Amino acid sequence: MYDVQFPDYLSGYEVETEAKGYLVGVKVVSSGATFELTVYDVARLAQEVADEVQSDGSFAVANLVVVPRVTRNEITRAVERLSRGNFQGLVPRAEA
After folding, report:
1. Pick from 44, 26, 47, 43: which is nearest to 35 by CA?
2. For every residue of the chain, which 3-state class applies, written as one string?
């Protein structure tokens, strides 16, 4: 069992978020672990990687999830697929 939590600021800005092609701060809580996801669509990810590599020489993002479109439905579907593997490959947020 798991719970997907979208950032509060997403409400009312779904169209803008989809157009931007990325969303940070999606949380998934499962078995006492919390995973913070960074979600990109394919086009925006390619742009971001190219820009970062050109300016900094590398690109790295923990818990990166790539979806066809950055919408609640697509993100929820991606999380469902990740849950089938018990969120293997994701790094839980360190508790302070």
Report:
1. 26
2. CEEEECCHHHCCCHHHHHHHCEEEEEEEEECCEEEEEEEEEHHHHHHHHHHHHHHHCCCCCCCEEEECCCCHHHHHHHHHHHHHCCCCCCCCCCCC
Amino acid at 54: Q
Work out the average pLDDT over 54-60: 96
pLDDT at 32 over 80: yes
Question: So what's the pLDDT on residue 96?
Answer: 57
What pTM value is reported for the model?
0.93
**What's the number of CA atoms in the CB half-sphere (13 Å) around residue 43?**
7
Rounded CA-CA distance 74/96 in Å is 31
Span 67-91, mean pLDDT? 97
70, burial (CB in 10 Å: exposed 0-12, middle 13-18, buried 19+): buried
Residues in the chain: 96
